[in-house]
Amino acid sequence: MKISNNWLKDYIKTDLKTDKIGEYLTDIGLEVEGIEKYEAVKGSLAGIVVGKVLTCEQHPNADKLKKTTVDVGSGKILTIVCGAPNVAAGQTVPVAVVGTPIYTKDGNSFEIKEAKIRGEVSQGMICAEDELGLSDDHGGIMILDETKYEVGKNFADYFDLATDEVYEIGLTPNRTDAMSHYGVARDLNAFLTSNQMKADFEKVTSKPLDIEGSTDFQLEVEDSALCPRYIGAVIENVQVADSPQWLQHRLKAIGLSPINNIVDITNYILHGFGQPLHAFDAGKITGKKVKVGVNPEGTKFTTLDGVERTLNGSEIMIKDGENNPMCIAGVFGGQNSGVSEKTTTIFLESAYFNPVAVRKGAKFHGLNTDASFRFERGVDPNSTRTAITHAIKMIEEIAGGKMTGGLLEHYPEKIQNNYVILRFSKVDQILGTIMHREKIKEILKSLDIEILNEIQNGLEISVPAYRADVTREIDVIEEILRIYGYNKIDSPQKISFTPVKLSFDDQDALENSWARTLQSNGFNEVMNNSLTSVKDETDAVKLLNPLSGDLAFMRKSLLEGLLENADYNIKRKNQDIKFFELGKIYHKKEKYEERKQLAILVSGRNSAENWLQPKSATDFYYLKSYVKILFDKLNLDIEEKPLEDSRFSDALELASNGRILARVGKVSPELLKDADISQECFYAEIELETCQELRSKGNLKFVDIPKFNKIRRDLALLIDKEISYAELYKAAKKNPSKYLKNINLFDVYEGKNLPENKKSYAMSFELLNEEKTLEEKEITEVMNSLIKTFQKQFSAELRS
Prior knowledge:
Layout: E1 2-4, H1 5-8, E2 12-13, H2 18-27, E3 32-39, E4 48-58, E5 66-71, E6 77-82, E7 92-97, E8 101-103, E9 109-111, E10 115-117, E11 120-122, E12 124-126, H3 129-132, E13 163-169, H4 181-194, E14 200-201, E15 218-221, E16 229-236, H5 245-253, H6 261-273, E17 277-281, E18 289-293, E19 300-302, E20 308-310, E21 317-319, E22 325-328, E23 332-333, E24 346-352, H7 355-364, H8 370-377, H9 384-398, E25 402-410, E26 418-423, H10 424-431, H11 437-446, E27 450-455, E28 458-463, H12 473-484, H13 507-520, E29 524-525, E30 531-532, E31 541-542, E32 553-554, H14 559-570, E33 577-588, E34 592-603, H15 620-631, E35 639-642, E36 648-656, E37 659-667, H16 669-674, E38 681-687, H17 688-694, E39 711-720, H18 725-733, E40 740-749, E41 758-767, H19 776-794, E42 797-798
Parallel strand pairs: 15-18, 29-33
Antiparallel strand pairs: 1-13, 2-14, 3-13, 4-5, 4-7, 5-6, 7-12, 8-9, 10-11, 16-24, 16-25, 17-24, 18-21, 19-20, 21-22, 22-23, 26-28, 27-28, 30-32, 31-32, 33-34, 34-38, 35-36, 36-37, 37-38, 39-41, 39-42, 40-41
């Protein structure tokens, strides 16, 4: 947002320098990102002097050039080569002497130097109007009236050249109250007065109007919820023309192009007070009636940019007496009702529209205007009358118009200020220091926040309606601190805290623990947008008012986002992928469903390439091992079973107590093709809420390090091919021996010398008695028990 310093001074007068004002604005949250200089004429005609052409002869070496001598009042006669067809002896002309910068239309510049042109010395340049930035005329040099211009004087002395300094403010979206010069001045005044600095600030109020005659125009608001307040005025006998120079310079300084006096005045009020206005050609309003409501879905409407748009039936529309649309309220005007050079009577609008309805209309049609930007965030409902009365006065003074009849106004129910209770103890807690109570009251008063009543340890306050972002106690405290000054709050030299034992009911603790585990194993956390596009809309949650077609649905899975991350990295030669994401997914079944998951994606090598280790590609078991590491923290009995899921070519489901904990698998070739990924990817998704509900509450125990060694015994089992290791593991875990501590599969063999449809599993078993050394008899008893279990349940045979 651009703020003109000259314009700002219309509302607040202070002796502060521009840089200091910029510093204070930044301190109160209106961050000044830069201060630029504005010049009505680039360079302000510096180095341009009035000269007199003494002689003018044909250039000896060029047919289209003239050789002149020019007196510029310096005592030295200059020789200047000129190519203008209208140069002649005796003329008074503007001359750029050596060293003068000349600015081109594209903003670049070059310096006038003494040089030879076709063999003849040239010591300056006789200028045309476009070379000086005074117009676009390049028909010849600028010839001056010798009775008005004195030879040797600076050419700039004959012009009232507007200059300005412009603040570039990085305004946060919630500060709609400061989206104008008056709003910035009001905020600056609050800071200066509360810090006992001199400032002359006068609140802007409505202007008295001179009303002539009556008007036949009528106003009808169909739905006050869409338009709580609307004011209109009919102004006759306007003359649409160019705006005066001062108004043009005000708009140019902040980057706006002047159009005509009527439009420029509405823009001036918009950027001056923050209240959007719109002017209609009253002669084009059928039935002399203005309606505010909606048009049926499918209605065609051509906006000022010449684009025909199809209405969706929910936009707030300004219509004529026959319901013909004239304007998308608060967003964009219509081509057929706009002000033109032929307009003599205008209907001027100032309103407060429902912010949500304006935003929906703007987003649906892909429009983002200065007006919609403000209406969407909530303008001051009490400034509508002030703004329109100032605009009417300006139109009467600049365009010669006269208002007929009184203001046409719809305001059935006054929009109230926000009521808030402010506790002094809360202020002290947030600030970390005790602020004097009278200082708090002083700051509130400077912010136009009315103190309704003093209560025990606090205040009942009324926040003005123009502060749409201040609705809670914490918002008020932020305002107090902002004006008081963040720099005045001392940082504590010592920070004290008490470690708190995390509860097993704390899901955040589980998530943080898992995240740290993955990070310590080389995984990188990613965060993707919850909004996406989907091919299959089944069970998908669709937004009512999406920002775009690509962001119209809530994501159904975290997989697609992780594949996009992988594709981005692979295309940039980072092919070894170890990503995880903590996020929510959304489905619409019998009711809306929202679940939080931990998703993991791996691809490429499982360890960095080096000379010592062979290349090793990641695989399903590599990913599953990390899922197992995470699940070790749950202390649950995990069941594994095959999973049919279109996202995977091979997958496994992990469950406990009949509830699904995770899905682990190899991403299907179809999904990889859609993601433009050519290497294998493996994906796991863990249901966080389910894991949190089921995890054991007593799995953290401190035990002594065993004094005795573990004993290992191995078994080589010949079993049927369809039997999985998981089944063997589950059966072994049920062994009643308290000495069995660990079970592991260290070899699988399926080859020659084995019967048909058989395979061999080599399993290790670790046994430990924590009180004494195990005797061979005890070991043999456990191993025989295991062998019997394998033989009975799986018809296993021992291999020697």
